[in-house]
Specification:
This protein is an alpha/beta fold. It has one domain: Aldolase class I (TIM Barrel, Alpha-Beta Barrel). Helix content is 27%, strand content 23%. It contains eight helices and ten strands. An eight-stranded parallel β-barrel has the order 1-2-3-4-5-6-7-8. A two-stranded antiparallel sheet has the order 9-10. Strand 7, helix 7 and strand 8 form a beta-alpha-beta unit. The longest helix is centred in the C-terminal third of the chain and has 11 residues. The N and C termini lie far apart (35 Å).
């Protein structure tokens, strides 16, 4: 089971883009995944528009993804210019169907149409219980992928990893971290033998502290990122990485 990307989600305003570039120099298969959610911009995990623009200008990694959450996702479906402008520095776009309150707030036909109209990007469908019915609509849409992701950023491992779905490029997320990524790559390799895939993690590469139900610390940890990438490196496919779309 070779992996094409190890996607690391959640860099925010506290992270220096030069540090991300240094890591990508050593591990060129890393994919930096940036969350777009204007309602929480500037908070942990959710960078400001200014940081995203700076990242797009200065990112030297071949692989970059933007995750559209809540209003950003709805704005994409509606064709809003400001969302498409921020997407320019990225080559993959994740449509977060599970994170945020988007259920029943968008037209599924319009979603498919927007993806078809934008072949320059690969669109990742956040796949979980409740949106399985969407997949047949994308069978004939070549620029899409599917991420198995019941956790949706909560850092929770699934009970088991699902086999890839025929006709879809599938990846895996949920509860992965430096301590368990090696074991889970072995498990995934058994359910997806000889299948090129990718993995994604968010909470597992952060330092999170709570007092009761209140989060008092939630920081991106570069050492955890390096540890994960070092473990994942032997699984990386030897094919060349995608070329980043034109920078802003």
């Amino acid at each position: 089971m070779p992996i094409q990307y190890c996607s690391i989600t959640g860099a925010d305003d506290a992270v220096d883009v030069s540090d991300l570039n240094a890591i990508a120099q050593q591990y060129p298969f890393v994919e930096w995944a940036i969350l777009l959610l204007q309602a929480q911009a500037g908070q942990s995990r959710f960078p400001t528009t200014e940081w995203i623009e700076r990242f797009s200008l200065n990112n030297e990694c071949a692989n970059a993804a933007m995750h559209l959450c809540d209003d950003a996702f709805l704005g994409f479906v509606e064709g809003k210019r400001e969302v498409f402008e921020l997407m320019q520095g990225f080559n993959r776009i994740q449509l977060n169907l599970k994170f945020g309150d988007v259920k029943g707030r968008f037209d599924e036909g319009e979603l498919v149409a927007r993806v078809k109209e934008a072949p320059r990007w690969q669109f990742i469908l956040q796949y979980a219980k409740g949106n399985e019915h969407l997949l047949p609509k994308f069978v004939d849409v070549p620029n899409h992928a599917v991420l198995f992701d019941e956790s949706a950023g909560r850092g929770e491992l699934p009970e088991g990893w699902q086999a890839p779905i025929a006709g879809h490029f599938c990846g895996y997320a949920g509860g992965l971290n430096p301590a368990n990524v090696g074991q889970n790559l072995e498990i995934i390799s058994k359910v997806a033998p000889n299948y090129t895939t990718w993995i994604d993690m968010e909470t597992g590469v952060r330092d999170v502290e709570k007092e009761g139900d209140k989060i008092i610390r939630d920081e991106f940890n570069l050492d955890k990122v390096r540890s994960v990438l070092a473990t994942a490196q032997p699984y990386v496919v030897s094919a060349p990485a995608n070329t980043l779309v034109a920078k802003r």
